[in-house]
Amino acid sequence: MLIINKLKKSFSDTEKPLLNNLNLTLHSDESLSIQGASGCGKSTLLSLIAGFDHPDSGDIIIDNLSVTESKNNAHRIDQFRKNKLGIVFQSFNLFDCFNAWDNIAFTARLKGNYDKKHQQALMDQLGILSLAKKPLSQLSGGEQQRCAIARALVHRPSLVLADEPTGNLDEATSDSVSDLLYETCKQANTALVVVTHSNDVAKRADRAMRLHKGVLENAMPEDAFAPSTF
């Protein structure tokens, strides 16, 4: 459901491309983790997939829609993100003025497919249903990130992008939240791409890859989860 073909991206005509003929195919319900040195282009790749930025060349296709061909059509890109994508940020990006329930419901209401029973089941699965009416100020970091995961999934997207989703959490909470992220996406038949510096988070994915010299490489078992260089 996600196809990336010969993707190139640089930020200067004189510098070496950050992404250089990058290719990737990801199927529905499949999870992929991406690691790599800081500044190698991991977050840039997610931004390109989400249509927030545009490549120099190449194509990104999600559910038969070319994201790159839609780059000059702002409405079409907005509709694509609203209908096809769920995004989990490191910094949660929740609304302080909303309680947990309304934060999670926001994306589905925006899309127009709000389903109270579906949201209840999703929150129950993530262990946060009892927090529905609580303001964000009363939630821990782990609880807020679970809310962010629920918000990313509540409108039934085809693909979830997670950029360092456990970067602001302690180790124990990170383990719990990452397990829930992978499990919930799998049960929802939703493809998942996780960018992470955490070896523990990366190894939970169906496929583990590293971004190196502008391309994605399969992470070999013996070196896939060696300590990262920052």
Record the SSE blueprint:
Layout: E1 2-9, E2 19-26, E3 31-35, H1 42-49, E4 57-62, E5 65-66, H2 74-84, E6 85-89, H3 100-111, H4 116-125, H5 141-153, E7 159-163, H6 171-187, E8 191-195, H7 199-202, E9 207-212, E10 215-218
Helix pairs in contact: 3-5, 5-6
Order of helices and strands: EEEHEEHEHHHEHEHEE
Q: Helix fraction? A: 25-40%
Number of alpha- plus pi-helical segments: 7
* CATH classification class: Alpha Beta
Query: Could you give me the name of the CATH homologous superfamily?
Result: P-loop containing nucleotide triphosphate hydrolases
CATH architectural group: 3-Layer(aba) Sandwich
Return the average pLDDT rounded to an integer.
Answer: 91
Radius of gyration: 17 Å
Question: Keywords for this structure?
Answer:
alpha/beta; Rossmann fold; four-stranded antiparallel sheet; 230 residues; 23% strand; single chain; 33% helix; six-stranded mixed sheet
